[in-house]
Amino acid sequence: MGNAWYEDKVDLGFKIKTPKDWEFVPASPLERNMIGRYAAPNGQYVNLGREEFVLVTMYLVKFDARPKEESGTTIQDGNKTIEISMEGAPDIDAWMDGGIDEGNSWERLEAAKPLKGAGFEGTFAIYEGKSTRGRGEDPQPVHAYVADFKVSKDVHVSVVGLGPGDKKWRNYEKAYETIAKSIQRLEVAGAATAVSGDPRGAKRAKLQNEVAKSPGWALYETPNYFIVSSYNDKQFIEEMKTRLEGIRAVYEQHYPPATARRIKVEMDPDEGEPGETPAEPETKPAEPAPEEHTTAPTILDPMELSRTSVVRVCKDREEYMRYGGSPSTGGYWNWVEQELVIYDDKNNQGTAYTWGVLNHEAFHQYIFYFYGNLSPHSWYNEGTGDYYFGFEYKNGKYKEGPSRERQHTLVDLIGSNRYVPLRDFVKWSKSQYYGNNTGNGRGGGRVEGYEAYAQGWSLIWFLRTGAGKAKGWQKSWETILPKYLDTLLDTGSTKKAVEAAYADVDWDAFEASWLDYTH
User: Fold this and answer.
1) C-alpha span between 29 and 34 (Å, rounded)
2) d(Cα 89, Cα 394) in Å, to the nearest integer?
3) Which residue intervals of 213-349 are DSSP H helices?
4) Is the per-residue pLDDT at 1 higher than 80?
5) 268: how many CB neighbours lie within 10 A of its CB?
6) Could you give the C-alpha distances from 356 to 286, 312, 393, in angstroms and in order?
7) How do the domains of the chain map onto residue ranges?
8) 468: phi > 0 → left, psi -120 to 50 → alpha, else beta; which?
């Protein structure tokens, strides 16, 4: 069952055999325990009976008690400040209780026993849980082989292998035991480092270290992006590099970096990693006296950090979902972990669709830094993302065009008289936009998330292209998007931004013109 090796020479200092032909999917950037997981190329679902299944998976998990300065991070979402915890589970029992994402209700069947023959001091135990794949009406037992190793004074590494909790389990247990016993010590050496105060260098070093311990993954660069990929289609990667820089040039025309919302961003010289805290634009680092041998934090602007943007390219849909993608999406911008995740959807909706998704999600990534980690209203944020979705890349240039998918949805929405009155729509929360809006559509109906997306796209399309074309267009409407942008940059308040943008709008005339133009 095992022939390749997982190796970590840059941090924890160990190697271990891996299941034959299984593929490694690294953990997300903010994951504090999971190193990554191994799964069969196309998934290996074992039928447990009663329409229940288990996805056979092997996890590598760490419990790192080495001193850390960061315990959390703060991100601004609209007018709310959200604290993201950076703490992980303290030990394997706690992780099995709430950290594992396959099965639930895990309990250790017996006390852990010493594991002899391994390269580190370790123990093993068998856990039993309940299946979570299937109809859920009658969950079936699933088992996990868990080996826990003390790889250093402050660090434990665990191997967690899953399988069916029936008579087939014994074969899985033997295979996982063989893998666990193969663990060996490696000398930690060769970790990439960066010059203090260089955010791009710091991000490069961090990603180089990640790729060094992520079998099958590689790192590519453009002037403004890092691409981390397990997809071996070099032509696709090269085209992505060109497209990313091309669509960013369009973003920069519409949202010039010089006008971005200025916040104080400190890079700790000892850590080499950025940490963000709002402050006045003119705040500057204190200058040490000549005799002091200290280094002042480097103050960066968010658009400098935008040049460290990360795009993760999964090799296929299955890997994309194992990493965290929803089966209903072709890509997503994870504002918490600050990376765009995508895959080539060539076997379903086509690669052209993937490029549209890239345009949409890369806008979210760009605007995240532009507004200083502040999320605009969904009609503005998602609507503009869909506006860029429709851009076509021809002869080395991007050309504006409508999003046909959103256009078709909108025709149905308006035709059935179920759209949301615009005076209400521009104030919608993210929750409402995603479908939690019963009673808000015309006639008291509900608007589905994909329908709200279509209406958001149409509003941005109307405001960006309607001048001189839309029936009844009023000159003052040309200031709506600039006013929203300027007010949000100046105040950081989405409420004030939408009030300022639409302060003098005649809603009846505005909606009538929009309906005529977009229907």
Assistant:
1) 10
2) 49
3) 234-254, 302-305, 317-323
4) no
5) 16
6) 45, 16, 10
7) 2-185, 199-375, 397-518
8) left
Residues 287-311 have a mean pLDDT of 61
Q: Where are any strands of DSSP class E within 233-321? A: 265-267, 274-276, 298-300, 309-314
User: To the nearest 5 percent, what fractions of the chain are helix, strand and coil?
Assistant: 35, 25, 40
Q: Cα separation of 223 and 204, whole Å?
A: 12
Nearest to 364 by CA among 391, 343, 345, 339: 339
Please give the model's pTM, rounded to 2 decimal places.
0.86
Which residues are within 8 A (CB) of 131 and not within 5 positions of it... i.e. 6 or more apart? 48, 52, 53, 54, 103, 139, 140, 141, 142
**DSSP state for residue 233 in the 8-state scheme:** -
Would you list the DSSP string of 333-348? EETTTTEEEEE--TTT
- The DSSP 8-state label assigned to residue 501 in this structure reads H
DSSP 3-state assignment of 452? helix
Chain centroid, CA 299 distance in Å: 26
Per CATH, the homologous superfamily of domain 199-375 is: Collagenase ColT, N-terminal domain (3.40.30.160)
Does 2-185 match 199-375 in CATH topology? Answer: no
CA dihedral 332, 335, 360, 475 (to 10 degrees): 150
Question: Is the pLDDT confidence value at 227 over 90?
Answer: yes
Q: pLDDT tens-digit profile of 13-58? A: 999 999 999 999 999 887 889 999 999 876 688 999 888 999 999 9
Q: What is the Cα 388 distance to its own chain's centre?
A: 19
Q: Which of 359, 358, 356 is nearest to 342 (CA)?
A: 358
Measured between alpha carbons, how far is 70 from 90 in angstroms, rounded to an integer?
Answer: 16
- CA 57 centroid distance within chain: 22
Query: In the 3-class helix/strand/coil scheme, how is 30-80 assigned residue by residue?
Result: CCCCEEEEEECCCCCEEEEECCEEEECEEEEEEEECCCCCCCEEEEEECCE
d(CA 505, CA 514): 13
- Are the C-beta atoms of 475 and 469 separated by less than 8 Å? no
Dist CA 362 CA 272 (whole Å): 25
CA distances from 390 to 393, 404, 447, 481, 513 (A): 10, 7, 23, 19, 22
- Each residue of 103-156: pLDDT tens digit? 999 999 999 999 999 999 999 999 999 999 988 788 999 999 999 999 999 999
What Rg, from alpha-carbon coordinates, does the chain have? 26
CA torsion angle 278 283 286 287 (round to 10): 140
To 10 degrees, what angle do helices 378-389 and 449-465 make?
Answer: 80
Give the CATH number of domain 2-185: 3.40.1000.10
d(CA 301, CA 257): 10
User: What's the first-to-final CA gap in the chain, in angstroms?
Assistant: 59
